Amino acid sequence: MAAVLYLSYDGLTDPLGPSQVLAYLVELARAGHRISLVTFEKPERSAAEREALAAQCLAAGIDWHPQTYTKTPPILSTMKDLRVMTRVAERLNARQWFDIVHCRSYLPALVGARLKRKSGTRFLFDMRGFWADERVEGGLWDLAKPIYRAIYGWFKKQEKRLLAEADHVVVLTEAGRDILRGEWQVPASVPVTVIPCCADFAAFPAVTPDARAAARRSLEIPGNATVAAYLGSIGTWYMLGEMLDFFAVQRARDPAAVLLFVTRDAPEPILAPAAERGIPASALRIQSGTRAEVPRLLAAADYGLFFIRPTFSKQASSPVKLGELLAMELPIVTNAGVGDVDRILEETGAGVSIDALDRSGYERALDELATLRPDMTRWREGRARWFDLGEGVRRYDAIYDELSALRPRGRG
């Protein structure tokens, strides 16, 4: 079993912290790995959230070291946080000699690679996505400005170095792995494993008629309405305008249709563009919920809806909502060109992928959705292959065992 230092610049109290960090680590700790966890927590998160997560870590035997995330000033605050992460990582490694440093995305990987050079700790680069390209394509780094052009160039050089130094690389998609092996020429000597954003199927059970009826009563949705559901924050990558355009086409066919947003986002940025498209507030439900409440809210839906900007970097993206919607056995309408989404829908037969985000594309998608008769055996087998949390844990466990066996005995 391995002694693992897990570094994340995302917080455990962030929306994906419980499902995409802690859920894996609890099971890996149960498998016998000794895990120390360093995260950066947003000051605005509630004390109750933090205390609940601390209790889960304690119960699982995970040694959690939350640090405070700083947002301003830009760039300098990130440099400060990286210095803190480096100090904490080196202090913990001096106290407990780790076999592996598991780095979630690029910034922690800079710290993990340094730790490997200093102490021989095996370095697991869990890329999550093509982070530097995401910053540019998401509009966060404007390459017209010299400072961001320089930062992007520096990170692309570091990216090559991190991939060369890593003892193992994890990516979220097969499309991303193909880019690493092909266009980016990562050699076969560097192991690359695909582990998508998995879902806890027990936490997201298949929707039953009773669950759907109860959810609709709680949301004041008529029992016979057609309900589309969007899950998660809107953010940089999700195409709210196009999703509302699609729903407007749905309402033209079915004026009683309802679009449900299960999100922590404020309602106003959704209501205003909806009104511009002639979608009244009465056709929308915008509802926040705890992680435990989310499946009960989603049970109101007939299908899930999400469109993501299909940029280069999104080929390495695995939408968390995809696995959760598949777990609940809700058909999906989405757009083509993002990660492995197209091949997953083809393999499972669980939904419709739209090539053209225009009225004719929306009409075709609605026609396909109306006639969709999925083979549930095929759906469930494909869902398990791609998104079962137990399978994701098994792959991480195998990587931990492999890397801990390579760790030199004695301090580096």
TrEMBL record:
Gene3D superfamilies: Glycogen Phosphorylase B
Domain Glycosyltransferase subfamily 4-like N-terminal: 21-197
Annotated protein name in UniProt: Glycosyltransferase
Originating species: Sphingomonas kaistensis
